[in-house]
Amino acid sequence: MSRVGKQIIEIPEKVKLSFDDKVFSVSGPLGDLTKTFRPEIDIQINDQNVTLKPTEESVFAWALWGTYASHIQNMIEGVTKGFEKKLIVEGIGFKSSLSGDKLVLDLGFSHSIEMIIPEGIKVSVEKNTITVSGIDKEKVGEFAARVRANKKTEPYKGKGIRYIDEVVRRKQGKKTVS
Questions:
Q1: If you placed Cys at 50, which of 9, 75, 88, 142 could pair as Cys (CB 3.0 to 4.6 Å)?
Q2: Distance CA 171, CA 173 (A)
Q3: Reported pTM
Q4: Euclidean distance between CA atoms 109 and 95, whole angstroms
């Protein structure tokens, strides 16, 4: 039994939900989100809450139960509050900038890395901090991970791109012979 799936999901004010033939839609103050769900889970929308129940007794349906409950909670939170990830670019000569709909990263390579910003995502750059925000948690997380993957933080000097709350375990480096 899923602990997350059994919980009743509260619907805040100004949020409208609809579920028609596998397509779940959420609209709120920040925008609209839609997602397609499999028929193994029955989704019931009442006046102020959403309940989920598996339609069949299988391990697969029980796994989807909690996953779909999390997806619905994330969709509701996205259209009301939104999601945000912050990244820090650290290193001498490392910089980031915006040019139209592209994020330009100079990370010590012989060329600049240009990343096209996906639709529905906002990116802002201040000094050495990149802020990725949007209403879809999956898109925000994926784009932030793709930015970070260009130059992960190395353990000796701490140069590279890291999340703002990420802790980098530093190594001592070579010891001198005495």
A1: 9
A2: 6
A3: 0.89
A4: 12
